[in-house]
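Researcher: Go.
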Amino acid sequence: MSHFVGGSAPAMVRQITEGFTLVSAVSLKRFTPAELQTLQAELERRLREIRGDQVDLADIQALQQRNRRISRIEGALRIVRHTLQQRRRGR
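Model: Structure:
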């Protein structure tokens, strides 16, 4: 059974991006290393997509929303990478 919120890694990434799901080391405990790698790949893909979207610099709200999404994804990526690194070390 998948441990992804929403049923799949892309669905979970959408929820993280929009701020509906928060990622923590505790919430990732039940994930296998393969699932964490899948989640990491999806987060990186979504980050590239968002960074590639051009926002009008005069539209402050759209710019802030884009930056919040980037921040959420980068934070989730940091936690996923740290969790994978700890598991490789055997902790």
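Model: The radius of gyration is 14 Å.
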